[in-house]
Amino acid sequence: MIKPRRIGHATFETPDPQKMIDYYTQVIGFVLAEREKDRAFLCSQIGLLAIQINKGDTERCTTLSFEVAPDSDFGELARELEKDGIKSELSNDSVPGIGQVLTFKDNKGTTIALFKEWSYLGKHLLHLGVGALKLGHVAWVVNDPGKTAAFYEKVLGFKVSDWIDDWFVFMRCNTDHHTVNFIRGNNIKMHHMAFELKDFIHLQNSCDLFGQRNIPIIWGPLRHGPGHNIATYHRNPDDQVIELFCELDQMVDEELGYFEPRPWHRDFPQRPKTWVGRSTNFWGPPPLPDFHRGRD
Ligand SMILES: [Fe+2]
Question: Which of 159, 184, 175 is nearest to 108 (CA)?
């Protein structure tokens, strides 16, 4: 079975690449690693590729990349996908720092690009803005979260970390509580994308940066229930909801089956479960209406 070890980068189309490059470099604090006529590649301060920007007609997330084990045999993985009726393609997309990729579509039309060879795009790079550490997770609105979760379990080997009732599912592929999550809605689109920060002080500094730049915080700071991450949300210039977070729950030992104990847990130990009720947050304010805008 395909078993992603971590998320690599997210690829977006946008009509105005320069506007998004400015946002990712000056607000999120990524570094422009490479610029082509219609493509740009942004990495974190430690040189991990995080975002690819392609010039396109509309603002949308087209592709997520995932790293698989270094001894993975792409031919074998392609044959496994074929058994599930999924066509895949081996290609070299000349993405900086990444070797061959095996690409296919997930059940909602997002391209999944698997890679096993990669290199840092620099080390200890000078950055502006927040200086997010890594791409953490990408959440999608889908018609049937159960169906999408089943696809990610069967085809990609993800595990369910938590559900909220039957409308929001959080899935992990490594120790992080969630790397993808799926929320029920009418229009299939990205719901939000999240970048990890070091700690709460780093998150506080990011709030001050938002204040200086007049970027409204549309939800938070708050501590979530599922995942227990402290988070804030804002909108980027393409109107996509972006989360910054720290202190996400960690499943350090899959055999033990519980998340690393933390003082803010209410279950002892904290195991994957279904959360019930509308407000699952541990503390913090409810979202502003702007958070929900455009979901349906
Ligand atoms: Fe999130």
Answer: 184
pLDDT (0 to 100) of residue 92: 86
Residue 180: closest CA among 55, 23, 66, 277: 66
Rounded distance between C-alpha atoms, residue 41 and residue 6, angstroms: 19
* Interval between CA 88 and ligand 1 midpoint (Å): 29
Q: Cα of 193 to ligand 1 centre, how many Å?
A: 7
What tokens appear for 162 in the block? 């938590």
Three-point CA angle 216, 222, 228, nearest 5°: 135
Q: What is the mean pLDDT of the chain?
A: 96
Residue 159: partners with Cβ closer than 8 Å, 6 or more residues away = 153, 171, 172, 173, 254, 272
List, as one string, the DSSP characters of 236-262. Answer: -TT--EEEEEE---B--BTTTTBBPP-
What is the Å distance from ligand 1's center to 192 Cα?
Answer: 7
Q: Which two tokens stand for residue 110?
A: 């997002």
User: Which one, of 20, 16, 63, 67, lies nearest residue 42 by Cα?
Assistant: 20
Percent of the chain surpassing pLDDT 70 = 99
CA distance 135 to 6: 10
Q: What mean pLDDT is predicted for residues 178-196?
A: 97
Q: Are the C-beta atoms of 104 and 81 separated by less than 8 Å?
A: yes
Cβ partners under 8 Å of residue 19, min gap 6: 237, 238
- Report the separation in Å between the CA atom of 167 and the middle of ligand 1, taken as the mean of its atom positions: 15
Sheet harboring 219-223: ordered strands across?
219-223, 230-235, 241-246, 189-196, 134-142, 180-184, 168-172, 159-164, 273-275
Distance from C-alpha of 139 to C-alpha of 242, rounded to nearest angstrom: 10
Convert the pLDDT of each residue in 46-69 to its tens digit: 999 999 999 999 999 999 999 999
User: Cα-Cα-Cα-Cα dihedral of 254, 257, 260, 263, to 10°?
Assistant: 170
CA of 125 to the centre of ligand 1 (A): 26
